[in-house]
Amino acid sequence: MRFCPRDGTLMIPQKKDGITVLKCPKCGYEVKLTEKTKEAYRQRSEVSEERKRGVMVAEERKIEYDQEEVEELRRQLLENLQEAERESD
């Protein structure tokens, strides 16, 4: 992988006039992609495909608390914050 010498952004391969160049998506800086660099990108891509994993999606649940539970949670939070402040002093 190569980073832009101007702003440090990751450069991405693109086709331009029949050749492949590395281009910075932020500032537009370009450099010709050599065969050695093409092979490195190709190998990295193949490894990435092998390591694909399933994606877990969190389901939003509505949780209802009564007023006493809310007050207890608030009290515990305040105690934890005060304890953390004492430890940091």
UniProtKB/TrEMBL annotation:
<dbReference type="GO" id="GO:0003899">
    <property type="term" value="F:DNA-directed RNA polymerase activity"/>
</dbReference>
<dbReference type="GO" id="GO:0006351">
    <property type="term" value="P:DNA-templated transcription"/>
</dbReference>
<protein>
    <submittedName>
        <fullName>DNA-directed RNA polymerase, subunit M</fullName>
        <ecNumber>2.7.7.6</ecNumber>
    </submittedName>
</protein>
<feature type="coiled-coil region">
    <location>
        <begin position="56"/>
        <end position="87"/>
    </location>
</feature>
<dbReference type="GO" id="GO:0000428">
    <property type="term" value="C:DNA-directed RNA polymerase complex"/>
</dbReference>
<dbReference type="InterPro" id="IPR001529">
    <property type="entry name" value="Zn_ribbon_RPB9"/>
</dbReference>
<keyword id="KW-0240">DNA-directed RNA polymerase</keyword>
<feature type="domain" description="DNA-directed RNA polymerase II subunit RPB9-like zinc ribbon">
    <location>
        <begin position="2"/>
        <end position="57"/>
    </location>
</feature>
<keyword id="KW-0804">Transcription</keyword>
<keyword id="KW-0548">Nucleotidyltransferase</keyword>
<keyword id="KW-0175">Coiled coil</keyword>
<keyword id="KW-0808">Transferase</keyword>
